[in-house]
Each structure stands twice: as C-alpha cells, then as structure tokens.
Design brief:
4 copies of one chain form a homotetramer.
Chain A lengths: L1 E6 L4 H10 L5 E7 L8 H4 L11 E2 L8 E4 L5 H8 L7 E4 L14 E2 L2 H9 L3 E3 L3 H15 L7 E7 L14 H4 L4 E2 L8 H11 L7 E7 L6 E8 L4 H12 L5 E4 L14 E8 L2 E8 L3 H15 L16
Parallel strand pairs in A: 1-2, 1-4, 2-3, 4-5, 5-7, 6-7, 8-10, 12-13
Antiparallel strand pairs in A: 8-11, 9-10, 11-14, 13-14
Helix pairs in contact in A: 1-9, 4-9, 5-7
Chain lengths: 321, 321, 321, 321
C-alpha cells in the first residue's frame, strides 16, 4: 500500500482527492494536514465522506509517507517546500501553479500524461496541470504533435464554480452566480503559460496567439472549451490524427458525436470532438475541472509514478445528470 | 412627488426598492445612504440599474424627505432611530424585524395590508413584515378571521437564496447551494412571533403549535409554503372564505389550479391554493421574498400611507421563467 | 388606445408580449388567437398572468385591430399572410424569421431600432429581429457604421433555454440541460443571414467571415455574446464610437465595467462593454432573449410605428437575481 | 462472474444500473434490451458511458443470464413476465412498482435491505423499492421496530427531476422547472402503500395517517425528506435507537450534524439526522433517488442475492458539488 499524505486538506482539491483515495485499492491516506481545521474530523468538513473515513485533520506536518500531495493555494507550495525539508524518498505531487513552468529553477515534471507519460512515470516530483490548461491542451496536442498549428487559435472555455475555490466571494455567491454568465481575465489567463510551453514542446517555434476567453458558468463542475483554428486537412485526417494520438490514453476519448459537458462530469475523462467548417477546425474539449483538471489527474500521475495501472481507483461512476 | 430616502442602501432589499422606485410615477428618490459605499454610483453596486438612475450613495444621513425606508440589518433600525432624531413629518417604513412585535415599546404599525390596510393607511411608522411571515400569514389569515384554526398547523416553506442577504457565507456559496437542499431553524424560526401575533389578532386565544420547517432552496427568488391543518368544512367552503377574504386585496389571488413558484416571481403578488384531503386542508402560499416579502410590500405600504392607489408602481412584469 | 391582436398566442414570445401589453398604458389587447388553446383562459396557460387579464384564447382570426403581432413558428407567418387577407389599415409585426431577409419579395422593414429607427417609424410591416441577431448586431453596428470591420469576427454566444421554445424536447429536458453545456449549429446559425445584411447596410462590401459558435446555456433567460475582431484604434476611440452610436438609443447602454448577464435579464436593455487586448477589440453584448431579443423589441417597434415614446410600457423592473 | 441482463435499457434507471455494473468486479453485463433502441450502441444513448462499454442494445429478449433487471415502466414488468417464460434459474430484480405490494399474488420479496436483508439474500425475485418509499422508510423504520410510531407522521419530501423519467414533459421542461417549485399528489402518492406495508411489518397494527407532501425540486438528483411525529423519549434515546438499528447496515448513516442533500448525491448512501423540538421528533432522511432510491439499491440487492459483499461495486465517489 502506498502511504499518502495531503497538505492543505481543507480546500476543494484536497476533498476531491480524498473522495478518490479512500476507495483506491493501492493507497492508504495516512494523514491530512490543515492548520485551520486541525483536530476536526475530515468528514465534518468534507461532509459527503461521512461513513467513509475516520481521518482527523492533523495540525502538524509529517513526512512518513510515500507520496505527498500539495493542495494549498497558489504560491503556498513553494513556501511550504522552502520551509520544510521533505525527505528525498517522498514523491511530491503539487496541485498549485508554482512548479508548472519549466524555467530551470526546479526539478518538477509537468504532469499531463497525454503529453509525457513516460517522463512522469520516472519523476519524483510532478507539477499537476491547471484545469483550463488540461482541457485546452487535450484539444490541441494532436495538432501540435504534427506541427499543424499554423495560425492563431480561438479559445472559449466555460468553467464551473468549484474552479474558484472554497472561499466565499462576490463571484461565488449563489444569488449572483445562479443563471448568470460573465467573462474574466480575457486574453490574459495565467494558464496560457503552461499551454504555450506544452505546445512548443511538441511543435517547436509555435508562436501564434492563443486568444482565450474564460467564462464563469452557472454550474459547479466541469469545463467546456470550444477551440478553432485554420486547418487545411480534411475532417477525416483530423479524426485520424486525434484518434491515433489518444489511442493508448485510457481517459481521453475522441467522439464523432456532438459532445455535452455532463458526459464527463464526476469522471476523470477528457472528451474531444471535431468539426470542419470552411478552413476552420472546430475542436470541443471537455473535462471535469476537479478530476481530470485537478485531483483525478493527480491520482493518475501518482499511479504512473508508482508503477500502478494508470486507471487504478479512477474508473468513477459519472453523475450523468 | 413623494420624496423618498433609503438608509442601508447596499443590501438586497434596498436594491430591490430602488428597482421599483426609479419607475414609480409618484416618487422621487432623493438619496440613498450607505456608509460602506459612500461616493459610489448606485448603479455601480446594483448593476442592473445602469441607465436608470444617476444617484450616488450618500455617506451622511439626511431627513429632507417625506418617507424614509430603513433597509439595514436586523437590530440596526432600532440603533439608527436611537442615534438620530428623525423629524415627525417624515414617515418611516422599517424593513427589519426590530418593530414587528407590538410589545408596547413603540408606535410602529405592522405593515401587512391583507391584515390591516386601514391602520397602515393612517400610520406614520410601519414595520414591514418578514418574508416567511408574509407568505405564511397569507395562507392562514382567512381561517383565523373565521376562528377556524382549531388544531396545530404544519408548515413547510422553501426559500430562495436572496433571503440570506448579500454577504457571502458558506450557505450562500454557489458550489454548496447549487442543487442542494437543507433545513435550518426547524420549529424555531424568528418569524413565528409575528405570525402568532397576527393570528391571535384575528382569532383571539389561538394557541396551537405552528410546526414550521424552513428550507434553503437552490434558487434565488421566492418562497413556496405548503401548510395544512385540520379543517372540518368542505373545500368549497374554504374557497369561499379565502376568496371573500382576498376579494378587495389587489395583490393576493386565490387559485383553483395547482400553483408553482414562478407564477409570482418578480411580482408583488401572493398566490394561495387550497386542497382538501381527509380532514386536512392543504394550503399552498407563494410569494417573491424580495417583493411581496420585502421591498414590494414596503412600497405597497408607502402607497397606502400616502393615499396613493395601492398598486401604483407595483404592476410588475413577472419573469415567468 | 391601440388595439392589438396576437396570432399564435400559446408560445413563449406571445406570453412575454402579453406580460408587457397588459400593463402598457397605450394598448388594449383585444384578442389572442390560438388554435390549440381556443376557449381556454389566457392565464390558465400563461399562469403568471393570473389576476392580470381576463382574456380567453380565440379560435378564430379577427382583424379589427390596429396592430397584429405574429408569434407563430418560423414559416408560419408567411403561410398565415398567404391564407388571410389582412386589411391594409392593420400594422403587422412579425416575430418569426420569415421576413427578415430583405430579398425584394416583400415589404417588411427589418425592425432593429438601433439600426433604422426612422424607417421603422414609417413602416406598416416590421420583421422583428432574431434574438442572437439582435445581441450580435448591438455588439457590431458601431464598428460597421464607421467601416471598421476589417477582418473576420469571432463570436461566441450562450443562450437561455427559452430560446428553444415551449415544446419539450431532449435538449430542453431539465435532467439533461441542468448544469450542462453544448454547442449547436456552429458556424451555420440561421441568424447569420440577417446579421450580415445589417452589417453590409452600414459597411457596404463587408465580406469577412463571422465565425459564430452558439452555445446552449443552463439558464432560462438571456444571451451573453463575446465578440472580438482586429481593431487598430485605441480603446478610448472604440468607446467614443460606441457611446456616440448609442447616445440617443434609450435601451442600449455602453459600460466601462465588466458586464454580467443578469444586469439585463427581464428588461428590454442591451448592454455592451469593450476591452482592448493587443490588436483585438473584445466586445461583450448581452440582452434578454425574450425581451430585447423578441417581445420587448416588438413592443419597442410598435411604439415607434404608432408615434409613442419609444420606452412606453418597457421600463421593466429587472429580476437582478 | 455473474451474467446480468437488462430489460428496458433506454430509461434513466437502466442507464444508472449500467454506470454501476460496467465497473462492478463481479458482474458482466451480457445484454441490454430495448425495443426502441435496438442496434444502437449503448454509449450513443447513455452518452457518459463513452469509453466504458461496447454493448449494443438488443432488440430480442434473451435469458442466458444469472440475473435479469427489469427497468421498464410501471405496469410493464408484469406484462413482460406474463408474456415471457423466464427460466427458474434466472434471478429477477424488478425496479417497477408492479410487485412491491405483498398481496399474495406473487413471490417477489420487497427489496429494502434495511428492512429484511436475510429474506432478500434467500430470494429469487426481488421487488426494488420506490425512491420516495426508500427515503421515507429509512427515516421511520427504527421507530416502527420499537413500536414508537404513536401518532400521525408529517412528511415533506423534495425530489429531483430524474424521478420523473426520461420522457420530456411540461413538468420536466427546463424553462419551466429551473428555479421552480411545485407540489404533486399531495396526501395520495402511490408509494404510501409500500411504506405502510413495511411499517406494519415492524409495528403491527400501525394505522396512523402518513401525511405526505411530495415536492418537485429544481435539481436533478436526490430526495430530501423531513419527517416529524410525536415522540416521548429523549433525543439521546432516539439517536441510540437509530444508531443501533443501522449499525450493521453499510450504506445508511446516522448523523448528529445538520444534513444537506449533496452529502449523498451520486452515492448509494442514506443519511438520517434527528432533532427534538417539544414533543416532536424531527427526522431528516436523504438519498440519491437514482442510486439508493433505484439502481444502486438494485445492485445492493443483487449482491445480497448472490452472496457477495453487500457493498461490492457500490463504493461510489460522491459528486459533492
């Protein structure tokens, strides 16, 4: 059994990680750290876990684990690792943005299995991708791999409210968000950095604009991204490229039907569809932001890092409705 | 033109009051006070008012008005009136709970027109009823008037999130509240006091329990109350009593069809239906919590206090969907 | 009083028209035709109208009115006018797509006041614009008027479920649509025809692609469109152009804040915002699809055609929440 | 491996059953019958199953299975079993109402494990309980077992839209149901029959009224029931009774915190809480209507009937949000 510890256990990604790990056949969660919740039963905070775990939030950090998931806020992972000496035997999976950029200052591997599964499998430290970043990359990697990103890319992605975290704000107030739609950080979202990095890894020299409009949706889970760009091949060639790219990836599927967000909600799947209109290829890419976009992918990475079957503990029943 | 001022202008009830008053043909809003928002354009906070008002939040209290609406939180109206000497020429309508109980310590009239329209018309100070209290009383007044409340009353009422106010909390977080249901203050809701007071006013000596279960709903506007009690008459007798009681009240309607919440959302209406099952009379009563349950009723009271037609400015287009 | 008749009274647009007209100070609805609902009280179908109208659906067509609103489905207006001889004294406002294209086969005027108010004021027959078409045109007209549409336009617009009409289908099933997102008719929506027609009217020769992705949203009312295109001027120049264009139009407002859909829901407003990112101008345009996108605009057109103040009966309280 | 077949594969309960069974370690689904969908891939209809099954709907009924799940509409199970000779070796689990009443005309066992697990374990045919019936019984069984139901019971239960099935109707239209609430079949719901039967089984002679108000909620999954009745013991005695009753039942939990619907959504759990107010015991009972209220409980029954661990394949990750 892999012994797992969680730092920053009070947030949404930690809760979602626990929902997966309590039933994962190869993992035992040995402790969940939270300075704000120390001493409280985990299922008193993540209330749906009632009956599934007796864990109590630990107020002190411990390192007698095989893997450590860092679920604190952005910026806090770096602070944590600077403040603590984590033994080299402990593998680390960081869910924050802190180590996603491969800028030479650290040795974290970018943890998108559909980009570099083998590298992840050999890694001791993995930077788990962002939710928008995962969704958008799943829509573009097969084009980049063949060097077919030849013009700017137009991206529009609607996200659920859980992407905004557990802290109540004006933008997550039910009275405000219900039946509402708004845009934020248009053309400037921070995930563009990691997306560009991956695309250039597959298609060196790629430098076209990624015009990205993130949208706040009035639902809790999921990201629905529509992307299009100039593409000179046929639709069938596009399908062949995408199907070939994802053939050996168990979670990402290519569909020839019109997709809908709830096909993937509460699963670790990615789903990609293609349409050709004039010289444009329309790609729709959908994920669950908390699973394939966060904690599910973190467990997928853990499975790879420990030599388990990639899907272990991740064949989740979707909610469908 | 009636000059109106608003104290506590940043909350939901003040915003809703403004939505009504900016188009009310007999009213001019001369100022909106908010210590937290002083200097800000009213339409920068209540954003849907863009294009409808140039008002700016005032940081200082003024009394050169004909009517003052108190929209601050519960407890704050009393504090405000103790701290300020409001001229006797200024009529006051208080939307808080502070003066709803007629306990002999103040001279506010309880402002439910369906209970005591004439008394309100002569009043200088009105305590606007609570939202649950309005909805439940509309369902019970015709029985109480005839002395027909002869047993305990079972009440279940589901409320929209705007009832919980503008401040973001765990219970108004979209990720929590969306598609969720929960009960709070079962059997102990503070509105039971004013409900009991009105029922005893019509049916002296009424002392049966009001078993009231308030429920948090996953919608923004409206209260849907189902009530039942033992009733020995026929359904037709019940209809006659209710229809007779509400005949001259322009906003409250009795329906012989199965009602649904959205029939009244974004209107000042109350809607009441009746069914008879065995010896029980089932009464469904619905309102919009921000309108008939708060700011709409406040304007209805103002109309009465100033001798205007009761419906002036309140024939609102429902949202229906 | 203008006497108004409605053909096709059972659908959403007819219901919304009635919600407006029953309180319109210059209009009397003299009959509502519906073959499927003949004999039924209007408020038994459009249930929120309880207490507001005693109208009964008529099974026979009558023409003793000043204006006739055609609210039947697409294709049915043409069939109706071919089957019936409407007297020349009756003005006609058609809410279907049938006469929006100015193809020389009819004498309907395209009824977008922000495009051609004076022409509408003189018209006897008006083709009311589509909902997406209205929203998108409000976002682009000021650019087209100055000849500044110099490249393809990228359009993404999310619509509420009422856009899909009253007939229950798989795509309007609550269990399916709640918390779901999907795309339909990408790059091929039928409203592109009327949009292109208007843009070419202001900017002759405009022929760049309008890349339009319509999205089904999980809310009932409203359209939220984000549009961008290459724009060489400054943001301030853009604001000046838009503000100047809409200065005399009472319903369409330009905002310098980040807009949100619920600012316009249940009103006849259009709201447009601008941002500049690199060489792109981002335009967000929002309306209520049933009001400015359908029945509200129909009444606005009627007001113009009969010489009433444009806003008569249309200063609606927004739902805000 | 248990070979399982499904009759009536196009509906919601069949879809949910498939979502569970495709990952159940002890089951192989050998065929899914649907006359309307014959020849179509199962994942083309239950679209979230993409990548999880290659099953194709069968147009012909086959009986080479160990267990047959009947998922057709109410009334159709009886018709099916009258029309087909199912071999005695095939165990049957019926999800309709057809065999829930133990009226001496059939040999189905009522399949509520919390009522009679051992009897189910020995059964060849099981009638799976109704969703409301399951939720309400979980709230009352511990009282009935001790003979403590001494007065009428007041029941209010809000259900998600999936309870109304896949067929689109006026009451499942998104534009109607979103943010709406309504009551149906008050005091007369058909599930009262099976509830009464179980209560009398534990508390012979029980004959007090069950005043049940079913409510249509504006969410897709779950039932939230609040129940109260006169109870003379202390709250602590009540907790002891409930905790003792459910001690050995792995899915039903008693909580001392205020429960919320989403604690159980997308799980097979039941969750029960207790409060004492005056002489009333308030019981809140919640389940997922499609899981513990239908397909999850069907699999739980199957596990019992085949001697598997009761929780096999049913430790589902909740959706939580």
């Amino acid at each position: 059994m892999i012994k797992a510890g969680i730092i920053g256990g009070a947030g949404y990604t930690a809760g979602e990680l626990l929902r997966i790990l309590v039933h994962h056949p190869g993992v035992e969660v040995t402790y969940v750290h939270s300075s704000s919740q120390a001493g409280k039963a985990v299922s008193d905070l993540h209330k749906d876990l009632i009956g599934e775990t007796d864990l109590v939030f630990a107020g002190e950090v411990r390192f007698e684990t095989d893997v450590l998931f860092l679920c604190s806020g952005h910026g806090e992972s770096k602070a944590f690792l600077e403040a603590h000496e984590v033994p080299g035997t402990v593998k680390i999976i960081d869910l924050s943005t802190d180590y996603r950029e491969e800028d030479g200052t650290h040795d974290f591997v970018y943890g998108l299995p559909e980009l570099q599964r083998e590298k992840i499998a050999r890694a001791g430290k993995v930077a788990n991708p962002g939710c928008f970043a995962t969704c958008i990359q799943l829509g573009l990697l097969p084009l980049a791999e063949k060097g077919l990103l030849k013009d700017e890319v137009h991206i529009h992605a609607i996200t659920g409210s859980t992407g905004a975290g557990v802290k109540p704000t004006a933008f997550t107030h039910f009275s405000w968000r219900d039946s509402n739609i708004s845009v934020y950080k248009a053309f400037n979202h921070q995930h563009l950095t990691e997306i560009g990095q991956s695309l250039r890894q597959l298609q060196p020299g790629f430098s076209h604009p990624l015009n990205f409009i993130p949208v706040r949706g009035d639902f809790t889970r999921g990201i629905f991204a529509s992307l299009y760009t100039r593409f000179e091949g046929s639709l069938e060639e596009a399908f062949e490229g995408y199907e070939s790219y994802y053939r050996d990836h168990p979670f990402t599927h290519v569909t020839r039907q019109n997709p809908e967000l709830k096909q993937v909600v509460n699963t670790n799947k990615g789903l990609v569809s293609l349409e050709k209109h004039g010289d444009k290829l329309l790609i729709i890419s959908i994920i669950d932001n908390l699973l394939k976009g966060a904690s599910g992918q973190a467990v997928q990475n853990m499975n790879l890092m420990f030599g388990l079957e990639e899907t272990t503990g991740l064949l989740l029943k979707g909610s469908a409705f």
